[in-house]
């Protein structure tokens, strides 16, 4: 490969990744607006935190090889939909679905795929709501549609998933059976905690209805 061909490839890769960064920014802005509006209108923030990432070139190459996809940009673009990814961590499961509904109801958002691992958890106990959304990005050359993978989960689901991810890496995918069982058990405990906290939250809301909410209680209407 000549130096000029290499430079061309580098520029093409930069442009390719840039589109996904812009897609992320669009979705982040939408989430930020929903969060700010919720706070202002309902004095309640359904979002605990948001993180985002564009897949690293190494991880992209690994996935292209694993899935047997042709290495050209057009094939990668049409086959890999999680190059741009956002994770939204909410307080409660009800907030997860509420945010999902609000985001996907926007008329410039196209829903390409939904995987509801909250309604149907993975066998290992993993829970999250995954959606591949396509959003428009306006470049100097015109409008492009960019897919963004959005993962919605609660704090408890996030806690479990990050620990499981670490264990999976530590044991290089050969996790001992005993540990797998404990992880599944922990996932059930996390789900129980989610349900209990949500019930408590509803009780507090119910008991404070009609009277001024104490400082620590925030109303959802
Ligand atoms: P990273 O580093 O988070 O990006 P595919 O995306 O096609 O390879 P699949 O199974 O069709 O795989 O997609 P799915 O089910 O939507 O899951 C993709 C992402 O969800 C993963 O991304 C993880 O972030 C998360 N995820 C799915 N299952 C699990 C799980 O059992 N444990 C944990 N901790 N996370 C999970 P990546 O690409 O693996 O990694």
TrEMBL record:
It comes from the Bacteria. Residues 52-175 form the RelA/SpoT domain. This is RelA/SpoT domain-containing protein. It comes from Microbacterium yannicii.
């Amino acid at each position: 490969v000549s130096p000029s061909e290499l430079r061309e490839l580098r520029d093409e890769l930069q442009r390719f990744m840039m589109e996904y960064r812009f897609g992320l920014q669009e979705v982040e802005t939408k989430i930020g607006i929903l969060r700010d509006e919720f706070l202002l209108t309902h004095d309640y923030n359904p979002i605990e935190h948001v993180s985002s990432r564009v897949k690293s070139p190494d991880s992209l190459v690994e996935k292209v090889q694993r899935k047997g996809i042709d290495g050209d940009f057009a094939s990668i673009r049409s086959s890999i939909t999680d190059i741009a990814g956002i994770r939204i961590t909410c307080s409660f499961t009800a907030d997860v679905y509420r945010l999902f509904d609000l985001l996907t109801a926007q008329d410039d958002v196209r829903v390409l795929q939904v995987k509801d691992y909250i309604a149907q958890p993975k066998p290992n106990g993993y829970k999250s709501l995954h959606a591949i959304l396509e959003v428009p990005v306006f470049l100097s050359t015109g409008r492009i549609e960019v897919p963004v993978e959005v993962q919605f989960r609660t704090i408890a689901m996030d806690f479990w998933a990050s620990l499981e991810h670490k264990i999976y890496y530590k044991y290089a995918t050969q996790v001992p059976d005993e540990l797998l069982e404990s992880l599944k058990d922990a996932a059930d405990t996390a789900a129980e905690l989610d349900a209990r906290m949500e019930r408590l939250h509803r009780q507090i809301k119910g008991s404070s209805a009609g009277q001024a909410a104490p400082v620590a209680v925030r109303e959802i209407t």
